[in-house]
Specification:
With about 210 residues, the chain is mainly α. The protein has one domain: Phosphate transport system protein phou homolog 2, domain 2 (Methane Monooxygenase Hydroxylase, Chain G, domain 1). It contains six helices and no strands. Helix 1 runs parallel beside helix 3 and helix 4 packs antiparallel against helix 5. The chain is globular and about 60 Å long.
Length: about 210
Amino acid sequence: MAKGDKFYFENFAASTALSKKAALYLVECLENYNPENIEVMLKEMHEIEHSADKKKHEMNKALAKAFVTPVDREDLDMLSHNLDQVTDKIEEILQKFYIYNIQAVEPSVIDFAKKIVKSCELLCELMGEFENFKRSKKIHSLIVALNDVEEECDSLYLTSIRALTKEQSDVIKVVSFGKIYDCFESCADACEHVSECVGAVIMKNT
């Protein structure tokens, strides 16, 4: 692999590390939730998201100048965009707590956040293997593992929404937490989509 090619894989690794940092911070915020601190939480989360945006901009700049890339530049751009989406969607979850003036969290919300952490941890492993995708013996199992976590999130989404509509009579709370669960589900899908993109790139280049 050409020396300059390492930039792309290092950029992906840094992007996924930021997604994991955002997911861990989300769990911390929810486990110690205090609505009076929501603006401080949002500011901290946005700083993480902004750092992730910088990684995407660095990738865009490098791709614009590159003559030869380790895989098709369109694939690198697609993967960079999808990685950025993960961190964006984690930030969006916390934003919903601010928008809907949530005063206390539901236990299943924390469970969901921890599953997002698990997905981000797997993404970090996946990006660590991606540079050597032609020889790696772990990539396929990591893609499968990400799919498994996404299915767990689907199940948690269904049970959480059902419990919410069965047990809550407060319409505003039902609507608010419904939107929050939608964001969690979208974030889980974004994590899986990254793994699907990696799988497609590997298939195309082996």
